[in-house]
Amino acid sequence: MNAFAAVPPTQLEIPPAKTPSPNTVFDMMLQRTGSYVVATRDGVSDQVILLANKIDRLFGDDRALDEYYNSSLKVTTSNLYNAKTGTNNFGVSTSLNLSLPNLRATEKAIQQYWTRKPNDPAGEQKITPEEFKEVNPWDFGSELGVRWVNPPSPFAKARANRNYLTGTVVHHLRLEYGWDSEYLWTSLASLTSDYAYNPYFLLRFVNRGDWAISDDIFRTAHGPSWIYTFEDRSLVSFDLRLGLRSYDNAIYTDVYSAGFKYRTGFKKVDWIFMEITPAYTWTYSSGFTPTPTINLTFDFIYGKKEQ
Description:
With 307 residues, the protein is of the alpha+beta class. Helix content is 20%, strand content 52%. It has helices at residues 22-59, 62-68, 107-114, 129-135, and strands at 69-82, 87-99, 139-147, 153-166, 169-180, 184-196, 201-212, 217-230, 234-247, 250-265, 272-283, 290-305. A twelve-stranded antiparallel beta barrel has the order 1-2-3-4-5-6-7-8-9-10-11-12. A hairpin with a 2-residue loop joins strand 4 (153-166) and strand 5. The chain is globular, with a radius of gyration of 27 Å.
């Protein structure tokens, strides 16, 4: 028997519907909006981390060599053709990159995160800026090399790298100090900021400062690059740069440049990379008249990747 059957309908007490207060409604909307923004930010951040590291591997960037190889030997040959003067400048350099043990053991966690496969169940997890900073400590490396000019010019460098995540942009900070038989003591500081439009298209903004300590010359380079990757081991890049230089305690414009870069790795011989870079430069020394150049580069990278 139903317990409510004996009670007349008029005697049933039906609690009135509660109307959410304006503050409660606002809090609910704020929570939902916040969750959506966080999910979107984390998804894009995850995308830019993977794409930026893929691109730096293809470029054979020092940061990638430090972070993804136990140690590596890099041999670079380049031939720069100046269409204005009709001259070729051929050069060869070798460098040995030595990865030093990181001061924090959690570096391994972020490397495994970056190198995971997209269909890996672990790949479904997103990383927050707080987690990114926690598991992405400073990475230290050193480099010994020789530029095969006449006479040969040996050099040695020590550097520190760290990556930062702010919203949907990943920043790569690099600090370097070294000695060169031609330029003597030098230092470098650079901050590269990456934003991914999609899994293949990256916007990169470069800020770099080079200080020739012994010669007391300071140069900077600034500008964007639009980089598109395809076929897994190839990319194209359009680069704009502004170069500044110090002189007599003043900074002046030294060079402008605009270039197109095509770089590809050989599939069956995955340690060889070819790069073709046609460009226009406008330098202070030439009165800012345009100078067309084409640079052909081959990189040979030998090394054991970290597990």
